[in-house]
Specification:
The complex is a heterodimer of chains A (294) and B (660). Chain A is of the alpha/beta class. Chain A has two domains: 117 residues, Up-down Bundle (Glutathione S-transferase Yfyf (Class Pi), Chain A, domain 2), CATH 1.20.1050; 160 residues, 3-Layer(aba) Sandwich (Rossmann fold), CATH 3.40.50. Helix content of chain A is 53%, strand content 9%. Chain A contains 16 helices and eight strands. Chain A has a four-stranded parallel sheet. In chain A, helix 4 packs across helix 5, helix 5 packs across helix 6 and helix 12 packs across helix 14. In chain B, 45% of the residues are buried. The longest helix of chain B is centred in the N-terminal third of the chain and has 20 residues. Chain B contains 19 helices and 32 strands. In chain B, helix 14 links the parallel strand 20 and strand 21. By secondary structure, chain B is α/β, with parallel strands linked by helices. Chains A and B meet through loops of A and strand 22 of B. The site of flavin-adenine dinucleotide has 40 residues of chain B, from helix 7, strand 11, strand 17, helix 12 and helix 13.
Chain lengths: 294, 660
């Protein structure tokens, strides 16, 4: 299958660790993906609050290029990107008038049934559980991992068509494949405050704080995410949250790709784990210790 | 030679305001065959009808056209008036110049022209009318009631008290329906079983009622007056007439774990041989073969048999099919509650102390699993704080259903009230969208819950419920203060939406009655025929028609009963004669008509000669079932079917009248 890869801006910038670790585990599994040539912004947050047509046209252009190049499926690791791409595909499929308007302005046809996958769908669906399981060289048993989904992966359910919107489990299943223990807690899909991080940091600290303290209470060693925005709120804001609420958290936040990479036995440095704000040293030591016990 | 009278009605200014009625009358008078033309302010009034009758007599009319309101309004009125003067009522035709002209047009000139056209069409039709006799169907004066909840029981009792035999079929081991699961009932707080049990017993003992419990209707055919019914009486494994209901058997049954009690909505266990509740009617147990060790383990266990004094347990009993013929049917199959698994955010099924309203009824009930003491399912402790969430699934087109379930505002107020009465110092919170409490005494009841019993009502929806340190944290919006609220509760009760009983759509198909997209049975007319289904002889009652409370269910049960008693007060049922008619000489037996008839009115008829030799097979219309819809007429290739009163030549004449 020809797999297109839409990185979006985050994976090339603030969340470079996500891309590095993704490419690393794909290399290990011998899976080839091709970056969509000349891709543009997916329109997240800005476009859809300003101009509806633009919010469809931007992602649609990326899809149209992928379609032209004959891809059958697109991977968009960033949750906001996959959300925008799926939204555009949904609207184009259900609104012929809009479709005509958009394809006219893009001067490109778009008629595709291409499947658009977020990171978790891609790992579970395209790669498959068996393949991942066979790759695990260094089981993480003994490690307690909380999966945080945020809102964009599952909502709106009608469009995303992914997992149970109120109680998603796909990431927990992936965690279980690594041998680690998935931690059940109450705020898996609670809002982290998202883009308010810049305009209303107080709101973000309250919301993200709720999530992190609940995870802590349920005894997790670390958090995994599949969204750059979630990651930056949970990771970058963590020190401030600890200061504001005067209670230590110390929860490393990894991308799901990094956790898989660790279980595959890939060197943490090659996964760019040292790129995060909350140091993962303790967790990495714990993993080594667990491995040595065996 | 036709002698037609045309009567143009003004309907006050309703018609005359937009249509030049005098002009219509003048045009009528010019048509050959019209011997009298008249306009009058209100044709349906007594003087209007009298002038109609006088002119029929005076002018010896052979047909009448009324240019007036819709035939739905007064066709019958004028037909009756004509019949009194000895004219066949089907020689009365209506040109609808109100709904189809004056009410929908503004330009008087063009409206008048259209009214003239419609009138001319009917004149041409009435010239070609032939007398039609109404059809009489004999009636088997026995009724079938399907579903023994309060609505069905009420219907059965009223019919039986009217001196008519009733067969009451109930799917469950006992009659009583949902009402017998309830504790006290709004708005008067009388105890449900205290008012229900006597009715159940009366139904069981009534000489005119034959009760089949643990039974289902398997097949129905026929039509009003003559329905053939097959009832499957499921094998109870207990010989009913010998059983004393002593209970030795269920006390001896070793299966007292693992099987959840349906009656207690999974809050307790029951044995394999069981009565659903102590006041069950009939008080005869049912042996549930899907869990009984005798059946699962090859005959090893027979403890109940050994314990039973009269030895009435019989493991070999088989399902029985009973056939009955009845003249009328009541469908009163009631309701279920929505499965709230799509509300993952509320944690129903995940958190033991998030329960449904019906489960709360069982916790309140003295005959329930906690003997009426409110205890949490998780640890048996009495909750001090309960959050009630209304409209769970109702009024939610996204995830649930768009309609209002109607009873939950009231039963939630009841629950909060009874909680305050039973647990002193407790606190309840109610999340609601609107409070719907419109019947007699209802608003006062809800006010009382707020003001005397101290329930705190919060207008808004709940977004999430999660567990934290032994408490259920309920997050929601209080839209009146504009704040987000979080309440730490010991228990949460969800008012889950009402849906039709599972399988009611299948039953409706078997009965040939219509139902809406949710599965509720639809009335023949939502306002004027609320007790009748779309099929003659089949009546509706209770929640099977849509959400309603006990008083309304009782009223609808009685309404269905009175319709049946009215029907049975005559020996024959009269059907309008405008039904399909087969020309047996030209029918080629293709039976396309049979395939399109939605009412199963067409059957095959064999025509034999005197020696009994088959000559041909033709279509035959059952007058009890045919509604005169005309579908078969269009399907017939050989033009062998017509609907009386709507014959081809009549319709062509109407069209031709337009062309002139
Ligand atoms: C939690 C709760 C509390 C309530 N409290 C009150 C209250 O306080 N006051 C009030 O006025 N109302 C109350 N109600 C409403 C009340 O329960 C209903 O109005 C009433 O029970 C409707 O009666 P019914 O006979 O139409 O339906 P049901 O009670 O559902 O009876 C239908 C019967 O038909 C049987 N049946 C179904 N299908 C078949 C079949 N195919 N063949 C044979 N039998 C069949 C069923 O087994 C059942 O016995 C409450 C409802 C709920 C959910
Ligand atoms: S022991 Fe026999 S008589 Fe008593 S309830 Fe059971 S079946 Fe009926
Ligand atoms: S009765 Fe009240 S609680 Fe029930 S659906 Fe209607 S508005 Fe909601
Ligand atoms: S007129 Fe309608 S109901 Fe009557 S036989 Fe024809 S199709 Fe059936």
């Amino acid at each position: 299958m020809k797999l297109a890869y839409y990185p979006g801006c985050s994976l090339k910038g603030t969340s470079f660790e996500y891309e590095v670790s993704l490419l690393k585990i794909l290399e290990a599994m011998n899976i080839e993906i091709k970056e969509i040539p000349d891709w543009n912004c997916c329109g997240a947050s800005a476009a859809h609050s300003i101009n509806h047509n633009l919010s469809v046209a931007l992602p649609a252009r990326n899809l149209a290029i992928a379609e032209k190049d004959g891809y059958e499926s697109v991977l968009a690791p960033c949750a906001a990107c996959s959300n925008r791409l799926k939204n555009a595909a949904y609207e184009l499929k259900n609104d012929d008038i809009l479709k005509k308007k958009i394809t006219d302005s893009l001067e490109m046809p778009y008629d595709s049934e291409m499947s658009i996958n977020n990171m978790l769908e891609f790992l579970i669906g395209t790669v498959g559980k068996d393949k991942i399981k066979s790759m695990v060289k260094k089981p993480l048993s003994g490690l307690k991992v909380a999966s945080y989904y945020g809102c964009l992966l599952v909502r709106p359910p009608k469009v995303m068509q992914f997992d149970d919107p109120e109680n998603p489990v796909t990431m927990d299943e992936l965690v279980a494949l690594t041998g680690a223990e998935p931690v059940d807690y109450s705020f898996k899909t609670e809002c982290c405050g998202a883009i308010n991080s810049l305009s209303k940091p107080d709101v973000v600290m309250a919301l993200t704080g709720n999530v992190l303290y609940d995870i802590k209470k349920h005894g997790a060693d670390l958090v995994v995410v599949a969204c750059p925005l979630c990651h930056s709120n949970l990771d970058v804001r963590q020190r401030e949250i600890e200061r504001k609420y005067d209670e230590k958290l110390g929860l490393p936040v990894l991308f799901i790709t990094e956790l898989l990479g660790l279980s595959f036995g890939i060197d943490p440095k090659d996964l760019a784990i040292d790129g995060h704000m909350v140091a993962a040293d303790r967790v990495l030591k714990k993993i080594e210790g667990l491995a040595n016990q065996r | 030679m036709s002698r037609i009278g045309v009567f143009v009605c003004w309907c006050g200014s309703n018609i005359a305001g937009t249509v030049d009625v005098e002009k219509v009358r003048e045009e009528a008078a010019k048509i050959p065959g019209v011997v009298s033309a008249l306009d009058y302010k209100y044709m349906c009034s007594d003087p209007g009808q009298n002038s109609l009758r006088n002119i029929i007599k005076e002018k010896n009319l052979t047909g009448i056209v009324l240019a007036a309101c819709s035939p739905h309004m007064h066709e019958n009125t004028f037909r009756k008036a004509a019949a009194k003067e000895g004219l066949n009522p089907y020689f009365v035709e209506i040109a609808n110049i109100r709904e189809q002209v004056s009410w929908v047009h503004e330009d008087k000139e063009r409206a008048t022209a259209k009214a003239v056209d419609l009138m001319k069409m009917m004149v041409e039709k009435v010239k070609r009318d032939r007398p039609i006799e109404d059809v009489r169907v004999p009636l088997n004066k026995k009724a079938l009631v399907i579903g023994g909840g309060i609505a069905g029981i009420q219907a059965a009792l009223d019919i039986a008290n009217g001196g008519v035999e009733v067969i009451l079929v109930e799917k469950e081991p006992s009659i009583g329906g949902r009402m017998i699961q309830l504790d006290e009932t709004f708005p008067t707080l009388d105890c449900s079983s205290c008012i229900m049990t006597p009715k159940m017993v009366e139904a069981n003992q009534h000489p005119n009622i034959k009760l089949y419990t643990y039974s289902e209707v398997e097949d129905i055919s026929g039509y009003i007056g003559n329905f053939k019914v097959k009832i499957k009486k499921k094998a109870r494994s207990v010989v009913e007439k010998d059983c004393t209901g002593c209970g030795e058997c269920w006390n001896a049954c070793p299966m007292h774990k693992n099987v959840k009690s349906e009656f207690n909505v999974n809050l307790s266990e029951r044995t394999a041989i069981y009565v659903p509740f102590p006041q069950a009617v009939p008080l005869v147990p049912v042996l549930d073969r899907s869990v009984c060790l005798h059946f699962k383990k090859g005959g090893k266990c027979q403890k109940c048999y050994d314990a039973c004094g009269p030895k009435c347990i019989n493991f070999d009993l088989q399902d029985e099919i009973i056939e009955e013929t009845v003249g009328a049917i009541v469908a009163s199959t009631g309701y279920d509650l929505m499965d709230t698994s799509m509300y993952g955010e509320y944690g129903y099924g995940k958190y033991k102390d998030v329960i449904s309203g019906l489960q709360f009824e069982r916790l309140l009930s003295a005959s329930g699993p906690t003997e009426g003491v409110i205890k949490r399912p998780s640890d048996g402790k009495t909750p001090q704080t309960i959050v009630f969430v209304q409209c769970v699934g109702s009024r939610d087109p996204e995830k649930g259903v768009p309609y209002c379930s109607k009873v939950c505002c009231m039963y939630t107020a009841k629950h909060a009230k009874l909680f305050a009465h039973k647990v002193h110092g407790s606190q309840s919170y109610v999340f609601y969208i609107d409070i719907r409490s419109t019947s007699k005494g209802y608003e006062e009841f809800v006010r009382g819950t707020m003001e005397q019993d101290g329930a705190i009502y919060l207008r808004g929806r709940v977004s999430k419920i999660y567990e934290d340190e032994g408490k259920l944290i309920v997050k929601g919006a209080d839209t009146l203060s504009g704040n987000q609220v979080e309440i730490a509760a010991d228990m949460v009760v969800l008012a889950t939406g009402v849906i039709p009983k599972k399988g009611s759509d299948k039953l409706a198909q078997m009965l040939g009655i219509s139902y809406d997209k949710y599965g509720f049975f639809t009335e023949s007319h939502p306002k004027l025929r609320p007790a009748e289904s779309s099929t003659a002889g089949i009546f509706l009652a209770g929640m099977a028609q849509g959400p309603r409370d006990i008083p309304e269910s009782v009223v609808s049960g009685s309404a269905a009963a009175s319709k049946i008693l009215g029907l049975f007060s005559k020996n024959e049922y009269e059907v309008e004669g405008t039904i399909a008619n087969v020309n047996e000489a030209t029918c080629v037996a293709c039976f396309y008509c049979q395939r399109v008839c939605a009412y199963n009115a067409i059957s095959k008829k064999e025509i034999k000669d005197r020696s009994g030799k088959l000559i041909k097979v033709v279509a035959n219309v059952n007058p009890g079932l045919c509604t005169g819809c005309g579908a078969c007429v269009n399907a017939c290739f050989s033009k062998s079917i017509d609907v009386k009163g709507f014959m081809d030549d009549q319709i062509y004449a109407e069209i031709k009248a337009l062309a002139v």
